[in-house]
């Protein structure tokens, strides 16, 4: 079942009287419960596409449907959970209180919302932070704070998670550890995830599909189905098939860049 449908979408920006074409004729159909990564050169419009899907920006042409709703209707119905590049935790609230924030904000969702919620403490344990529920953000490293942001998005009950390069500020080892934790949580909860990244190995490891985009104006040049088994562990990264996918996507990116 298609939960996200993007048809003939285009977007331009104006800066100092000059128009820049960010996205051109984007067509994309994503099924419910899939993990999809958007990858492409810097400035190709990946984050802009994510924000249009989430109703944070509007397109100049084309249409986006979220389960039959417009992005703004889906946003009002609490369909989306967002994970930005920075974790956006309130410093005066403990970690568990930050985790509970979506519940407080979305309380008007009533019984339907409550039935979709996940246990905050269990999710903190799943990302290795079970001992930090009463800590404050300043007591956590950047990587730990980002793990809170990811766990909070899953705890929100939102069926679609939009992640905009959430690991971009992390070192390679921390990034790898958190990506494995994210995979483990996703395999359990099966949310629909749209994930923006520049990291090819990360995209292959996490995704069911990798959407390869060209340099500006951003266009979809290829959608690569990642047929690796679940559950995925570090062992999959040693599989020759994994490396074949990495090489394939790198070649596609290099071709479009050239």
What does this 3D model show about the protein?
This protein is α/β, with parallel strands linked by helices and 258 residues long. The protein has one domain: P-loop containing nucleotide triphosphate hydrolases (Rossmann fold, 3-Layer(aba) Sandwich), CATH 3.40.50. 37% of the residues lie in helices and 25% in strands. The protein is built from ten helices and nine strands. The protein has helices at residues 46-53, 71-76, 95-99, 101-105, 110-116, 120-126, 142-155, 172-189, 200-206, 240-257; strands at 2-15, 18-31, 35-39, 61-66, 80-83, 160-164, 192-196, 209-213, 220-225. A six-stranded mixed sheet has the order 5-6-7-3-8-9, sandwiched between helices. Strands 2-1-4 form a three-stranded antiparallel sheet. A hairpin with a 6-residue loop joins strand 8 and strand 9 (220-225). Helix 6 (120-126) crosses helix 7. The longest helix has 18 residues, at 172-189. The chain starts with a strand and ends with a helix.
Number of DSSP strands? 9
Number of domains: 1
Shape: globular
Proper CATH architecture = 3-Layer(aba) Sandwich
Broad CATH class = Alpha Beta
Helix fraction bin = 25-40%
Q: Could you provide a short overview of the structure?
A:
The protein is an alpha/beta fold and 258 residues long. The protein is built from 10 helices and 9 strands.
